[in-house]
Amino acid sequence: MPGLRRITSVLLLAATLGSATFLGGTASAKDLFVVDLVNEPSSLDPQKQWNPDSYYVYRNVFDNLITRNDDGKIAPQIATSWDYKSPSEVVFKLRSDVKFHDGEKLTAEDVAFSVTRIIDPAFKSPQISQFNKIKSAAVTGENEVTITTDGPYPVLLAQLVKLSIVPKHAVEKAGDDAFNAAPVGSGPYKFDRWDRGSLVALARNADYWGDKGPFEKVEFRAVPDAATRLADLQAGNADLIVTLDSDQAKQLESSASAKVLSALTERIAYLKLNPTLPPLDNAKVRQAVAMAIDKQGIVEGLLGGFDKPASQMANDTYFGYVPDIKNVAFDPEAAKKIVEETGAGKTKLSFATSPVFDQRIVQALAQMLSDVGFTVEIQLTDMAAYLKRAQSEPAQQANLAFGRWSCACQDVDGVLFPLLHSSSSWSSLRDPKIDALLVQARNTLDDKERQQAYNGVAKFVADDVPMVPLYEAAVLYGGAKNLQWQPTANESMFLNRMSWND
Amino acid sequence: MPIFFAKRLFQALIAIFGVMTLIFFLQRLAGDPVLLLVPMDASQADIDRMRIALGFDRPVVVQYLEYIGNLLLFDFGRSYVQNIPVAELIRTRLPYTLMLAGGALVVAFGIGIPIGITLAIRRGKPIARVLSGLVLAGQSMPTFWSAILMIMVFGVWLGWAPPSGARQISSIVMPSIALGLLSMATFARVARTAVLDELEKDYVRTGHAKGLPMRRIIFRHLLRNASIPVVTVSALEIANLLAGAVIVETVFAWPGLGQLTIQAITARDFMVVQGVVLLGAITAIGLNLIADLLYSLIDPRIRMGAGS
C-alpha cells in the first residue's frame, strides 16, 4: 500500500509543520496590543479586498492619498493639497519625505501607479466601482499627480479617502500574490507575519513620518464567536474587540477591567418598501407603514440606546444631510385607520432579511406592522440570496426589505443614487423627477446646487416613503480600561490615533 | 487480495467523484458570490464585469468540466475571497485540525476507556453511578455550550488557560476536552458493553476457577477480546472528530479547517468549500478503506464475504 504510506507521511509532515508554527510564544506587557477581529483579513493588499476585517489591519500598514480626521473632515495624508485645474482634473501635491518600509522613497510614480492599478478591469478589484469615474492618473511634476475624471465628479475626494498607496517597485517585483502575502506600505505599522486563519502581526514603524504608533507590536486575531471575544477581553487575552451587540455591551459596562467604546457610524438602517407592487403602490399606505414604526422604541428597547433614530438616509457626517426635515410621525392609530380604509391588510407582504442583520429588529418591525393590521411574512435567506433578490427587477423584489447602508464615503450620493435612481439594480423606484435631481447633484462641483438637489430628494423620501429610514447604526467595540481611543463614523481603526494609560 | 483491494479502491474513487460532483452543483444552485464581493453601491456594469472576470457568466457544465480538468492536474483552484490557491489555504489549516483531533482523541480514549471498564466491573457500585453521570453529561451537553462554559470558568475566572486562539501550547487543552467529550462518552459506553459481554464468557469463569486474580484476568485476557468493537468505533470516531471540529474551532478561534469551512460557506467561496469537502470525503472514505483492510487481515472470512 504505497499510497497509504504516502498519505501517512504527508500527514506526519503536516503535523510537524503545524507544531512548528504553534510554538509562537507571546510577549508581555503593553508592548503587545491584541485586537480580536471576527475573521482574519481576506486580503492585506489594500486594493484587492474591502471589508472591515481587512481594512482594520491594512489601513495601519498603508498611507492613503487623503484621509479623514477624527472630526470626519477630509484631511491631507500623502497629498498635502489639491486643486481643481478644471471640473474634471484635480492636481495633487504630494509629501516628499515619505518612505516605504523597505526604505524606498514614496514618489508621484507610486501614487499614479496605485490609481492606475485599481481602475484596471484586468486587476479585478472588487472596489473598482468606487473609482470607476477616474479615467487616468498621471505624474505631472515632481511630487505632483493629476487625476482626470469622466466629467465633473463631486464625490472624488470622498472616494479617494479609501485609496491606499502601494509601492510600484515592490508590487511589480513580487507580483500581486506575493505582495498580498507580505505587503509593503508606508504606514505607521509594518507587516510582520501572517499565520493563516489565526492572526496577522504588525510591528511599529519607528521611522514613520507622521504620528507614530503607541504599541511596539500589534496582533489582529480572528475570533469568530462574539462570546469568545468578550471572554478574551475580560481575561486580558485581548485589548480591543470588535462587533459587540447591545447585550454584550451592557455586560461590559459593569466590568472593572474593560469598557465599551462606541460611535455612530455612517451606516443607516432602513426599511425599504417596494412601490411597484400593491398595496404599497399607494403613497398613503406607505405612509401608514412609516406611522406604524416606533424608531425610538427600537433604539431604546432593543439596541440599548447606542444608536440614534434617523430622520433621513444620512446623518450629520454626510455631505447632503438636511438638518431639519419633517418625517411622518409615529402614530399607530392613524396607521390602523389607513390600513382599514384601503384594505391593505388583505395582501400578504413579504419581508426580506438575512442572518447578518439583527433579527430582533426585523421581528420587532414585523410585529409593529402587524399591530396596525398589515399581514407580514418574514423571509430569511442567506446574504448572497438576499442581495440577489434585493437587486433584481422591482416586481421580483420583496414588498419590504430590511437593510443597512453605508457607502463609506460620507456623501449622500453613495446612498441615494444606488437606492433610488432608476438605473440602479437596488432601486425599485421609477421616478423621472428624482432621477433628474440625483443626476444633477452627481454632475456638478457646486456644493450649493448639490445640497439643493438633495434637499429635494430628502423631502421626497420623507413624504412619499419609498423607504423608512430607521436608525443611525452605532458600532460597538470593547476595549481594555487603559485604552484611550475614540472610534469614528467611518469604522477605521487607526492604531496611531490610540493611546495607553498605565 | 490484490483484486479485492483494487475493487475497493475503484469503489472509493467513484464515491469521491460523486461527492465532488454533488457539492459542485449543489453550491451553484443558489447563485454565485459576486454580489458578496463588490461594495454595496457597485453598478450593474461593475457587477457584470466582476462576474465575467471570475468566470461565473459561463454555463455551469463548462465550469464543472474546467474544475475536473484542473483537479486531474492537482490544481484545486483559487479562493475568490482571499485570492490565494485553495491547496495553500488547506495546507496552512490542516495541521491545526489534526492537532485538535489528536488532542480530542487522547481525551476520548484516555478517559473514555478506563471509565467504560470501571463501569462494567463495578456495576451497581457508587463509583459506577458517579461515572455514568459523567458519561451522560459528556453525551448530552451541546458543544457550543460546554465550550463557552469552559472559557468562562477556566479562561476568565480562574485564568488557567487562554480563552481562545492557538498562540500557546496550553491553548489546545480546552478545545480538545470540548471536542473529545462526546467521543469520550461513546468510547465509555462501547467499552462498558464489550467488557460486560466478555465477563459472561467461559474463559473468564475458567480464569476464576484457576484462581487467577481479577486484575490479571482483565488485563491479560479480557481486554484483548473486548478491544475489537472499540477498534471499529475508533475508525468512525476519528472521522467524526475531524468533521465535528467546526463548532469547537469557531468558539475557540482555533484556526483549523472547520473554521475555514464555515467562513467559506457564508462567503460562497466555492473553490474552498469544494477543496475542504473533497479532503473530507477522501479522509472518510480512506478511513473506511483502511478499516475494511484491517478486518480482512484479522478475519479472512470478511475478505471472502466482500467478494459477493
UniProtKB/TrEMBL annotation, chain A:
**Does the keyword Protein biosynthesis feature in the UniProt annotation?**
no
Q: Is Transport given among the entry's keywords? A: yes
Any GO MF annotation of the entry: peptide transmembrane transporter activity
Superkingdom = Bacteria
Q: Which GO terms describe its cellular component?
A: ATP-binding cassette (ABC) transporter complex; outer membrane-bounded periplasmic space
Q: One GO BP annotation here?
A: peptide transport
**What keywords sit in the KW lines?**
Signal, Transport
Report the residue ranges that make up the Solute-binding protein family domain in this protein: 73-424
InterPro entries from the xrefs?
A: Peptide/Ni-bd, SBP_5, SBP_5_dom
The record's subcellular locations are: Periplasm
Signal peptide extent: 1-29
Q: Which residues cross the membrane?
A: none
Task: Please state the protein's primary subcellular location.
Answer: periplasm
What Pfam families is this protein classified in?
A: SBP_bac_5
What the entry lists under PANTHER family is as follows: OLIGOPEPTIDE-BINDING PROTEIN APPA, PERIPLASMIC BINDING COMPONENT OF ABC TRANSPORTER
Family to which this protein belongs: Belongs to the bacterial solute-binding protein 5 family.
The protein's name in its UniProt record: Peptide ABC transporter
The organism encoding this protein is Aliirhizobium smilacinae
Which lineage is the organism of this entry classified under, starting from the top rank?
Bacteria, Pseudomonadati, Pseudomonadota, Alphaproteobacteria, Hyphomicrobiales
Automatic annotation (TrEMBL), chain B:
Q: Which SUPFAM superfamilies match?
A: MetI-like
Top-level taxon of origin: Bacteria
Tell me the membrane topology, using the record's own terms. Multi-pass membrane protein
List the transmembrane segments: 12-30, 98-121, 142-160, 172-191, 226-252, 272-295
The keyword ATP-binding is annotated on this UniProt entry = no
Pfam families in alphabetical order = BPD_transp_1, BPD_transp_1_N
**Annotated compartments:** Cell membrane
- State the family it belongs to: Belongs to the binding-protein-dependent transport system permease family.
What is the protein name stated in its UniProt record?
A: ABC transporter permease
- Say which species the protein is native to: Aliirhizobium smilacinae
